[in-house]
Prior knowledge:
The chain is mostly beta strands and about 150 residues long. It has one domain: Hotdog Thioesterase (Thiol Ester Dehydrase, Chain A, Roll). About 15% of the residues lie in helices and about 40% in strands. It has helices spanning about 10-15, 45-60; strands at about 20-25, 25-35, 75-85, 90-100, 105-115, 120-130. The chain has a six-stranded antiparallel sheet. The longest helix has 15 residues, at about 45-60. About 25% of the residues are buried.
Amino acid sequence: MSDFDPTKAIGFNKLVGYQLVEWDLNRAAVELDMTEGHLNGLGVAHGGVLVAALDYALGMSGSYQPPPADRRWCMTITLTTNFVSPLKGKLLRTDSRLTGGGKTIFFAEGEITDENGTLVASAMGSFRRLKNKPDMSTSIPASREI
């Protein structure tokens, strides 16, 4: 059994501030309390913040396994994003769901809304399930861990 705790963000997700707020079979939800650091020059959510939230949530929708099984790990193969309207509010919410696939490859889709339920962006993607968590200890110096 792994020591993965879905309530604690790690790495890039921790740096940005994403929180996995719902996670169950075939679905996941991620939220972010927006700060000035998440905005672009126009004063709205930076597109990279939106894409990364979608990537995180969609990948997690295909990574859940009921306890006591370990979580599955995956990597993104494709991610197509549609920007619909600017997110100007204080809360970004990403809801995602598994839409199909098999043992190795899965497909997911999701959308970002603000605190008023306004659609901000949507995405669909394909992901590869990994047999094990990748060992990054040799590629990233320990002193640079987040």
